[in-house]
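Supplementary Methods S3. Input chains for the assembly prediction are listed below.
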Amino acid sequence: MYMKKILSVFVLLAIATAVHAQDQLRLNDLEYFERQGVNVLVFSNSFNGGFNDEKNSGIEIIHHGVRTVQGGAVRLNNTPEQWDLVPLMTDRKVDAAKGTIEVTMRYADYDFDSRVVVTAKGKAVEIAVWLDKPVPDALAGEAGFNLEFLPSQYWLKTYTMDGRLGRLPRYATSQTITRPNSEKPRQFKGFRTYDDRGTGRFIDPLPIETGHRLSLATDDPSRLVTISSDDAELRLFDGRMLAQNGWFVVSSVLPTGKTGKVVTWTVEPNAIPGWIREPNIGFSQIGYTPEQPKVAVIELDKNDPVQAGSASLMRLNSDGTTAVAYTADVKTWGPYFKYNYVKFDFSAVREPGVYYIQYGKTRTNDCLIDEHVYDKITDATTDVWVPIHMNHMYVNEGYRTWHGEPFKEGYLQAPESDHFDLHRQGAQTDTKYKPLELIPGLNIGGFFDAGDFDIETGSNINVVQNFIRTWELFKPQRDETFVSQQQRYVDLHRPDGVPDVLQFIEHGTLNLVAQAEQIGHMASTLSNSVLDNYHHLGDAGSITDGLHYDPTLRPYEVSADGRRSGTPDDMWAFTTRNPRLDLRAADVFVSAARVLKGYNDDLAERAQRQAERLRKEAEELLSQRSLNRDPQADAEEFWLFGEASIVHKLQTALDSIPMKDEAYRQGLRPTVQKFAEYVKSFDKDNPYGVPIGLGNWAGVNAVLNFGITVNYAHIYFPDIVGKDEVYRVANWLYGCHPYHNYSFVAVVGAARPKQVFYGNNRADFSFIPGNVAPGLLFRKPDHFENFDDWPFLWGQNEGTIAGNTQYIIFGSSLKKVISE
Ligand SMILES: [Ca+2]
Ligand SMILES: [Ca+2]
Ligand SMILES: [Ca+2]
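Predicted structure tokens for the full assembly:
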């Protein structure tokens, strides 16, 4: 009896130890710390995005499937903004035996180096900051170790600091002080994110709480994180006091005059015992036509065993009853990055009706099977998103003004300068204008680039091309928009007798032709001159004061006649000549002249004249300069045409078919055959059957290009690329993708479109109808993400004018295939 008791205690201890071991954070083969429900990443993603602090870097925590914590690094601000300096990671060492990751960071502007060593300690990680040299004097009291928490996952949740209770605020309402600008650490390239209104002082948020032991989300086990430090004070800040895209920040100032291990934190993210992520049943939210293949892709936690035979399609009858329409075994596709995938094929169901999918305990929202489900997929984009992005117009919708008329004072010649939106003005302006001289006539036509309000000339050329293509291929007569160039007024949902696409072509061409006429060639961009209005959120009509900048006046002073001000807010035209851009403009002018003839003959003639002049001059310049490649043009084209070249080349060939003979079409057959194999290859590449991008900007443009080419390959070669293939991209866009199953197109996807997008109204946690999100952003080494409660990450949620007009072509071509 005695022996037996000892034995069972021993066994119990052994079991306890085994369970305990499973609870530990361990450094895995992918070089991050892992336990069930918790991933701690240490600079798997470093601060090297295109736009400074993209809130995607440093020490990050993926907590029960959601990346809720990032920005863990030595930073120079309590609540870093996008253009505050970010550290360059100069070294990263992973020691599997010791269970540590060590990262070396450098701020070259301050010759300041630091190291962060992260070590697994049971359920927690220890984060230690090491300095070989003391903090530079200029950063004393400023540099600290920070960790940032996603507001939308933490607001309204409770916290404790040294036992004191609090609740994290839904909206930023903490307190600030101001300090002299001389004390502000330098921002990116010396730009300033703020307009100090002549005070010479910047805003510094005060902490909400300070102490040594902080538990965040004590009321939510899935978000609970405890941080403690004996050697440093923890300060909790609200980054939204300075910028709407700020996060909650926990920060400890690095001590001055010290070297060695200067700050030590213990960070313990809670793990719900035995947590398994709920299955994500990917399906098309807009539904399915009766004849099309219908396959749901179910994304499963790697610890979630496949439930054989448990997927059903349920039918919601009009008498309020529910019935099983179809049941089948799911088929295993296998692992793809961190999850496991199975498929549920319910193509056999063809009866029109309202259905939902049930897998185990998980059920989806409902969707339709009906032959008309695709009928309206482009309407929100053409009727709402595009007109709202018309620049230099007042845009009204019902009772609401989307924006007043922007940039009434026009555009100034940019002086030699660097820029915050990846542009540059060289020493040569290549124009007759002096730096900061008004270039007349540019404030007409054109489309806002994206979530910002500049005119990217390359993108605007794409937009006009996309609309011309839409017009010539589909001749859409849809008229839901009133456009008056004379009144500079746009009214949504008010037909005016002119097809809207024609008016959009005219609007884009007006700005491009004005550039050619006034500047003599194409500007690379018409953009903000100061960073503090580049990040403007709200009415585009109030970005600038509408008054001409007059440097003889003091800042904020207005001239007696009320027409000029001393506020340097006027937009700039970046005019360094790029003959390749001029050639692209010349091409689009020729097409625009063709389309606009008979509608706006004057503009058609001007476009034709500029096309001929630009082409002649550009060709001369290119031969004179014997340019090989303009690196800037290369960079631009990377953004615009980042898709696989096979798609681009084939699309160009397919577009020529209507102008060529039958022999040409037959000659393309082997290429289309190869393309058909390429299309099928995605069934093996990933569970969703489309090209999935892994870049820092999610891949919807490449997916749309792929989709357009599949559609046209089917239209011209239905025997090689079958009709079933055209639904791949639609399924992906409208909900069959990783992370969640919401439609990436705002308001399209009848039951569950995404709810927040990165548009110019993002601060309202809203969307502009018809916007297309970039989609699934890949975070190294194995995480896909698309936030639907936090709009501010452009790489996953920002619609662009070029991408959204490309969507119109995709949607129009899909409708054409389906209707035939
Ligand atoms: Ca831009
Ligand atoms: Ca119209
Ligand atoms: Ca102004």
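Residues 479, 481, 483, 495-496, 498, 500, 503 surround calcium ion (ligand 2) (CB under 6 Å). Residues 1-19, 633-643 have pLDDT under 50 and may be disordered.
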